[in-house]
Amino acid sequence: MKKILTGAVAAIALVGIASPAAAQTNQRHYAGVVLGIPYTSTNPGPGGVFLNELAIAGGIGTRYTAFADAPSDSETATQTVTTTFNLTGSVNKDCSFYAGNGPSATNIDFGVIGVRTGNNENVNSAFEMVGPAFANIETLTAGCNFNNEVSITKNNVDGLVNSAAGGYDTDEFQANIPYSVTAAWTGVPVNTVTSGTGQTLNVSTSQQSGTKQQGAWRSNMTINFNAPAITNKGLVAGTYAGTTTLVLSAL
């Protein structure tokens, strides 16, 4: 048998694999000649190692071993890593209504509310309203950026009231002028995601208040006040007054 590696060049290839785990090198080889018969033994079990090592100690045969070791990954390797970034921010709830540049902008004066004062009027028409009283308000900026409620409330269900009317015959006169209020805008129903359409909230002459819930909206808004002419009774002279409150409130 040829002597191992005699007159030859041994090339050792060192290989590292940095992906899935591979078996590490652990080799043990024996070779020799016993009674003229060559033999080899590769990676023998404990008994074979004992016999081969005993033969080497007695001057028979040779041995080749190769052992390699390196620490494993610090944790399980993954070929794909997915990371999700959670982006957050907040927008405050807000409602807007442009009502002019000062408190006087919301003072609505009908002026003289005409009544039939001619001395040639029939007694059944004397002192009755000549015609309806009306007022129109428009703002180009109104709305809320969340579900909201639009409400209209009169301070008195009787409408405009003459609080210093003195005495009068209730069969022939009255000291109040009922009026209706109608607000109109472009919006959507509450909790509804859709294109805006015309919306209205009406408080009739016999109602004191009304509400309507909406989803987020922004548009112009018109508010119309209408006091129908009172033709069954005369009006007591004096000042007639009342307030109407419009509220936009985010829910």
Structural class: mainly beta
User: What is the tally of helical segments?
Assistant: 1
Q: Stretches where pLDDT falls below 50 for ≥5 residues?
A: 1-8
Domain count, please report it: 2
Mean pLDDT across all amino acids: 91
The main sheet comes to:
5 strands, antiparallel
Strand content: 35-45%
Encode the helix/strand succession as letters: EEHEEEEEEEEEEEEE
Structural Rg: 51 Å
Describe this structure in words.
With 251 residues, this protein is mainly β. It folds into two domains: 27-66, no CATH class; 95-250, no CATH class. Helices cover 5% and strands 36% of the residues. It has one helix and 15 strands; from the N terminus they run ββαβββββββββββββ. It has one helix at 46-57; strands at 26-34, 37-42, 62-67, 95-97, 133-144, 148-154, 160-161, 173-174, 176-177, 180-187, 197-203, 209-214, 217-227, 234-235, 244-250. The strands form five sheets. Strands 4-5-13-10-11 form a five-stranded antiparallel β-sheet, with no helix packed on it. The protein has a three-stranded antiparallel β-sheet with strand order 2-1-3, with helices on one face. Strands 12-6-15 form a three-stranded antiparallel β-sheet, with no helix packed on it. A hairpin with a 2-residue loop joins β1 (26-34) and β2 (37-42). It is rod-shaped and about 160 Å long. The model is unreliable at 1-8 (pLDDT under 50). Residues 1-23 form the signal peptide. Keywords: Signal.
